[in-house]
C-alpha cells in the first residue's frame, strides 16, 4: 500500500510540474538544435518498423510534436498524457493543424492504461524522452503492453539509463551532483521542473528486456546522446558547429555499437510482440 501511495503522490507532483511547463515547453525546446537532433533520431528509428497507415498509442505525448509528425505522415495516433496542461496544448495544436482525423487525445497516465477508452489494439506503443522514468512501477507499465498491441506489434521506448558518459565527465567541471545523480539511484532521484520537485528512476535496457521477455523479441537498441552532448549542455551546437557536426556523424555511425548504445543520456529500444 505504501508503494502505491508513494507512486500516486509522485505522479501528482510530476503532473503538476509538466502542466506548469506546458505553456512554455515548445518555446524552451523547439529551437534547441540537439533536441531536434534527438527527435530526428527517434523518429527515424520508429519509422523503420512502421507500415503505412499504422495505428500508434503514444504515452506521455507532451505538447504533441511527435504525434503531429506521425499524423502528418499518414499514421493514426492516440496521444495520451497525465498532464492536463500538456493535453490542452496538444489539442490546440491538433486543431490548428487540422489533424483531428489522424490524431486523437486522451488524458490518461501510463500507469493506468487499463482505464483507456481507446484500447486499440495498436501497431505501435511509443514513449519518447524518458516519460516512463517518472515511475518506480515500470514493471507494471510494461506488463500492460501485450494486451494493447496487435500480433507483431512493436514497442519503442526512449529511456534514461543508469549511466551516462557525458554526465559522469561533468565531474571535471566540478558539477558533482549532476555527475553522480544516476549512481545509487534505486530509490529515485529528485527532479525539478517549474519549481516542483518529483522523483525519477533510471532503467537499463536489461530491465525492459526482462520485463517483456515472455511476449516480445528484442529488435534493436540505440544510444542517444552518447557522443553528441546532452541537450542540457546549452548552446553547444551553436558555439561549436564543426565539432557538433563531427560528433553527430560519429554517433550516427556508432549508435548501435557496444558500448555506445548503453552509455548515452538516453537509449532507444524496440521490441516486437511474438
Explain this structure to me?
This protein is α/β, with parallel strands linked by helices. It is 37% helix and 22% strand. It has helices at 2-21, 25-29, 33-47, 65-72, 84-96, 138-143, 165-169, 176-179, 205-212, 236-239, 241-254, and strands at 55-59, 76-81, 103-107, 122-127, 149-159, 189-193, 196-200, 216-224, 266-273. The strands form 2 sheets. Strands 3-2-1-4-5-9-8 form a 7-stranded mixed sheet, sandwiched between helices. The protein has a two-stranded antiparallel ribbon with strand order 6-7.
Jot down its keywords.
single chain; 274 residues; alpha/beta; seven-stranded mixed β-sheet; two-stranded antiparallel sheet; 37% helix; 22% strand; disordered N terminus
Rounded to the nearest angstrom, the radius of gyration is: 18 Å
Number of strands: 9
Average pLDDT, rounded to a whole number, is: 95
Helix content: 25-40%
Beta-strand percentage range: 15-25%
- The spatial strand order of the largest sheet comes to 3-2-1-4-5-9-8
Main sheet attributes: strand count, strand direction, barrel closure? 7 strands, mixed
Low-confidence stretches: 1-5
Overall, the morphology is: globular
